[in-house]
Amino acid sequence: xxxxxxxxxxxxxxxxxxxxxxxxxxxxxxxxxxxxxxxxxxxxxxxxxxxxxxxxxxxxxxxxxxxxxxxxxxxxxxxxxxxxxxxxxxxxxxxxxxxxxxxxxxxxxxxxxxxxxxxxxxxxxxxxxxxxxxxxxxxxxxxxxxxxxxxxxxxxxxxxxxxxxxxxxxxxxxxxxxxxxxxxxxxxxxxxxxxxxxxxxxxxxxxxxxxxxxxxxxxxxxxxxxxxxxxxxxxxxxxxxxxxxxxxxxxxxxxxxxxxxxxxxxxxxxxxxxxxxxxxxxxxxxxxxxxxxxxxxxxxxxxxxxxxxxxxxxxxxxxxxxxxxxxxxxxxxxxxxxxx
Length: 340
Known about the structure:
Elements: H1 2-15, H2 19-39, H3 48-62, E1 66-70, E2 74-81, E3 84-91, E4 102-106, E5 120-121, H4 125-128, H5 136-150, H6 157-160, H7 165-172, H8 184-192, H9 194-203, H10 205-230, H11 232-269, H12 272-298, H13 304-339
Antiparallel strand pairs: 1-2, 2-3, 3-4, 4-5
Helix pairs in contact: 2-10, 3-5, 8-9, 12-13
GO biological process, one term: ubiquitin-dependent protein catabolic process via the multivesicular body sorting pathway
Protein name: VPS37 C-terminal domain-containing protein
Membrane topology: Peripheral membrane protein
């Protein structure tokens, strides 16, 4: 980190940047460094709806008199500035918080943060540097504080709409009001003296507030990063449990498929139609066995007593099987008629 800072300082010297330009670029570098550091750490998983709700909740926490105009899409914040009733309208697009909010002020007045011939706030640092990790509540709070300091009073409203060069000078000196009290020689001295420029930047309340907000943002990023690190072990344990559960489910599925295949085979083997066919085949075999015994008797290979006993047994067995087969076929026919 320190080596990077020395390298950046050397680059500033080579480029010949002013102290103010160095200050702004260095602060942006610090913010970018911590945001990159944050993105390299495992984050909690939130849906777009959760992130949108968290931003809206932050808007209500950091600001008073927040009114919902359209649910999750448009909000109104009323505030007092120099004895004037002011209103900020915050419009959230469907892509918010990935896209920055659109903020409008009413009534309109001259201010460098407002768009040309428009009441939309476009130059606020919180909007210029807006990311998905920005805090909507703090962005709006900083805009309100700035307008409360710089909005003209009711008595001076006509003067604030003056389009003369002097009015533009006063508007542009809102960030450095002490410059309006200096003469040309003093301004030229500040322009040529970097030490005076640094002192001017250090004593500027707006830059001090930006610096404080930057520090708060970096502290918040560090807290979130530490919180994510503490939850890493829990996340790994949950992943292991999920993988074990998936393995168990795969084994149970394979076992189910084997048992289901065996069940289908048994169902086919013991179905009523299968039993009927088996009885019919068994009755035919019994009749064939009886005829074979009769042929052996006619050939003189079997005695009368043996012939009578075996022939009667096979005949009785065949008739019994045929009777069962016919009775089962009749029941199946009735069942088919009842179901059709």
